[in-house]
Amino acid sequence: MTARASRFWGRRRYAVIIVLLAGLAMWGCGPMRRTGPSDGAPRVDGARALERVEGLVGLGPRPAGSPGAKWTAEWIAAFCMECGGRPQISTWGEDTVTGRRTFRNVTVVIPGRRRQRVILGSHYDTKELPGVPGFIGANDSGSSTGLLLEIVRTVAAAERPPPWTLECVFFDGEECQHRYGPRDGLHGSRQHAGQIRVAGRRRDYRAMILLDMVGDRDLSLTLPADTDPALARLAFACADSLGTRDRIGWFRAGDILDDHVPFAELGLPVINLIDFEYGPGNAWWHTSEDTLDKLSADSLAAVGNLVLELIWRLPAR
Ligand SMILES: [Zn+2]
Question: How far apart (Å, rounded) are the C-alpha atoms in residues 24 and 19?
Fold first, then answer.
């Protein structure tokens, strides 16, 4: 057993003990309980979100099918358990352009005042870059995954349940190995959307919100053109009231193929909160420059608060 694996098992044993001591692990219980505003969305602590990102990135590279991806999925699930959730790791195999690989999505559901669900997603795998061995992907995909974990903790610890049931999904296999296609890239999101379609559960969902590359200290969210117009208007209004309207706009340089696409194809209203201007001319994206020093707690808090405000103000259809 490696040092990393024993750290994980130690952590999992700790999580299991907490659950046993708690007797009935219920949302809202536990030592991390915190009171949120009574009639508004809870707020995200950016410093804590950055700690989650650092913890995740500290696990090392996590390309789909690697031992690192497996450890990461288990680490994500252990954290969700500590928050009082009941995470599920779904594992499946797929033939990819470079052979068969095992993928794992981690899902945790936070019950809300309505039964209808909002999917909150982030991929957690890292790109395999031949020229960059050990690529850790601090922003892509560390930032969105760490922030989503902190959102899980924040919402689970809040005084009141969220207005919508939140289905938080940590996707594996977003990154392609060669070029995006049916057997390359978006594996986790296609799998999850496919399960909803096959089960005939499309109407159980109100919307899908994707987070990707959200930690850049120079935050500029660039919504892809296929974003649902009503969700975009609501996001702009929420950003306005949070004082972060100057941090969000449209992506003008083409389409962005990302984990929101399989859900858009399912007919769900989708919004992809992505900052595709990472460094000058997006120069830090998929390079050895994608490191923790490029991120900031303020950016994570800005996006986290935008997500929560969006969910709390999302009207029924
Ligand atoms: Zn990427």
Answer: 7
How far is Cα 142 from Cα 26, in angstroms, rounded to an integer? 28
pLDDT, tens digit, 9 for 90 and up, residues 254-300: 999 999 999 999 999 999 999 999 999 999 999 999 999 999 999 99
Residue 35 alpha carbon to ligand 1 centre in Å: 35
Ligand 1 mean position, distance from CA 243 (Å): 28
Instruction: Give 126 Cα–ligand 1 centroid separation in angstroms.
Output: 7
**Dist. CA 127 → ligand 1 center (Å):** 6
Q: Rounded to the nearest whole angstrom, what is the distance from the C-alpha of residue 175 to the centroid of ligand 1?
A: 6
Ligand 1 mean position to 284 CA, how many Å? 11
Rounded to the nearest angstrom, the distance between the alpha carbon of 179 and the centre of ligand 1 is 12
For residue 25, the CA-to-ligand 1 centroid distance in Å is 35
Supply the CATH classification number for the domain 3-313. 3.40.630.10
316 alpha carbon – ligand 1 mean position (Å): 33
Question: Tens digit of pLDDT for each residue in 138-176?
Answer: 999 999 999 999 999 999 999 999 999 999 999 999 999
Q: Give the strand order in the sheet containing 99-110.
A: 88-96, 99-110, 164-171, 114-123, 205-212, 270-274
> Tell me: the pLDDT tens digits for 292-313?
999 999 999 999 999 999 999 9
Mean pLDDT, the chain, rounded, equals 90
SS3 49: helix
Look at the pTM and tell me if it is higher than 0.70.
yes
Strands (E), the chain: 88-96, 99-110, 114-123, 164-171, 205-212, 221-223, 248-250, 270-274
Domain locations in the chain as residue ranges: 3-313
Q: Which residues on adjacent β-strands are paired with residue 181?
A: 184
